[in-house]
Sequence to fold (262 residues):
Amino acid sequence: MIPGRKNRRRKKAPKLPTIQFPWQRMAAVVGAVAAVGAVYVATLWVMNRPIEKVVIRGAFERVSAMELEEALSSHTGVGFLTADLDKLRAEATALPWIARASVQRRWPGTIEVTVTEQKPAASWGDRGLLNMSGELFVETARRIPAELPRLAGPDGTEQQVAEHYFALREELEQRGFSAVGLVLDERGAWQFSLSNGIDVKLGASDIDERLARFYDALDQLITTQPEQVEYVDMRYTNGFVIGWKSGMAAGVATAEGREPRV
Fold:
């Protein structure tokens, strides 16, 4: 040892921390972002992909598939996923003779429309047609089927008249008769016709009571010789009048000869 020199030890240089880059985690993040981006791009592509065609299905008698295709043609070219199916359905059912419509997407670019046509249950007025719900679905028909019953009444009374007619028809069919027409006039008076030509006047008041008396008369008197009856007037307080084709009229319990009431 050299005198006067201290024994010095060399200090070791500090070790630098080792940095490990998270390559696996970064790869997973990048992959997830890429996947999301791919889904986003694909979604935009599908949403903007236009409708290629509209397919119409259904049993057509009054409406043609061509009419429906023409009515819905404005939707061709609209985005497949952005197409408003409710609007398509509303436009289809807005056409005369279309009762219901279902609309579905068919991948990759087809819209399928399945329709059900209206079934006329009665005519209304001169040219209208009613369905079984009493809805006026055609106001001016080109042709009125001869077998349909003829109903009429003021505007807005279609369902009321239809309901009365269907109830009347059920009662008459149980007795072997059928009604071919029912009319409600502006004063609120009812009148109907049977298939054998008999006209029945009910008036505007006590309709249920008068109908009950008419059914009794039908069971007890008219059924025996319906071909001889021209009309039945139920507009009396306690009875009715039968008009015979011979020109005579016979009153049955007509409240001491009072005049008929509306």
About this structure: The longest strand covers residues 98-106. The helical segments are 23-48, 65-71, 85-93, 158-173, 207-220. The chain has two domains: 48-117, 122-252. The CA atoms of residues 151 and 182 lie 5 Å apart.
